[in-house]
Write the C-alpha cells for this entry.
Amino acid sequence: MLNRTLAAAFDAALPYEDYLTASPAHADAWRAVSEQVTITPEHLTLLQRFAREMRILVISGAWCGDCVRQGPALAAIGAACPRIDVRFIDRDHPASPIDQFNINEGARVPVAIFMAEDGALVSHLGDKTLSYYRWAAAQQLGPACPLPGAPIPVDVVASVTQDWMNECERVQLLLRLSPRLRARHDD
C-alpha cells in the first residue's frame, strides 16, 4: 500500500526547475542557495560509482526556509548523477504522503524519501540534517523555520550538502547490497 502511495506521489512530483517555476514567488530564494551549493570532484567520483537507480521524493514547501536551504543540495546531487531521479512535491499537494512521514508528530518539511528503482521504500530523512541542527543550535536561532532567504554561511551549505551526499551513499550501498536487487541484476 505504501509503495503505491509513494509511486503516485513520485509521479505527481516535479523536477527541481519545474517545482521552482510552479512557485515563482519563492524561486529566487531557492536559486540563491543553489548558487552556493558545490558538488566537489570527490562527490562526482562517488556519484559516478553508483550502480543502482535511486528515486528521491522530496516533500517540501516552496515557502519553507529549511526547504530553501536543503532542497538545492538534493537537486544538485541528482543533477550530478544520472542514476538519481530527484523530484519535489508540495507538502499540501493531494498526492503528498506527508501524513505517513510526520516528524516529531508534525508535518515538517523537507522530508526526503529514498526509493529503489521499483519504487520500494528504502529510507527517509527529514526536517534538517545533522550539520544544520548543529549550526542552528550554535546560533540559537529560535524559530523552527526561518523565512526563506535568511542567510546561511557557505560552510554550512557545504556541510548540509555533505550530509545529503552521505545519506545518498548510505542508501546506494543499501541498494547495492540488497539481496533482492542483487538477484534481479544478477550481480
